């Protein structure tokens, strides 16, 4: 928790790849986690975006092309066809717990 900065994000590496964790202390819940990768550029930059609120929706604006992504759903507000992965996140004491999907084992046909 000590690594978080109010109203901004940090990037963390997970088994699922880079994830952006945002701390918005004036909201409940106060923690959000989405993919760190901007789907429009392919760059890992979303944790460096500017957080805000659009019509009650907590968002982050990509620092590259300025699209807004919902921190709750991952949906791009400017293009509904585009979204980023959202991860369940919670505070456990002073540790942040992030739930990442279990990798699917490749099935081999016999």
TrEMBL record:
GO terms for molecular function: 2 iron, 2 sulfur cluster binding; nitrite reductase [NAD(P)H] activity. Keywords: Nitrate assimilation, Oxidoreductase. InterPro entries: NirD (IPR017881), Rieske-like_NirD (IPR012748), Rieske_2Fe-2S_sf (IPR036922). One of its GO terms (biological process) is nitrate assimilation. Residues 2-98 form the Rieske-like [2Fe-2S] domain. SUPFAM superfamilies: ISP domain (SSF50022). It holds the Pfam family Rieske_2. Transmembrane segments: none annotated. Its EC number is 1.7.1.4. PANTHER family: NITRITE REDUCTASE (NADH) SMALL SUBUNIT (PTHR40562:SF1), PTHR40562. This is Nitrite reductase [NAD(P)H] small subunit.
């Amino acid at each position: 928790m000590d690594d978080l900065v109010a109203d901004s994000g940090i990037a963390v590496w997970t088994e699922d790849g880079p994830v952006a964790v945002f701390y918005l202390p004036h909201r409940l819940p106060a923690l959000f986690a989405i993919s760190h990768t901007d789907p429009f550029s392919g760059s890992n930059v979303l944790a460096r975006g500017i957080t805000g609120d659009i019509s009650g929706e907590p968002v982050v604006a990509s620092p590259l092309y300025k699209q807004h992504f919902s921190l709750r759903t991952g949906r791009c507000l400017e293009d509904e066809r585009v979204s980023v992965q959202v991860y369940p996140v919670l505070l456990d004491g002073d540790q942040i717990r992030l739930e990442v999907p279990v990798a699917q084992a490749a099935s081999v046909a016999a």
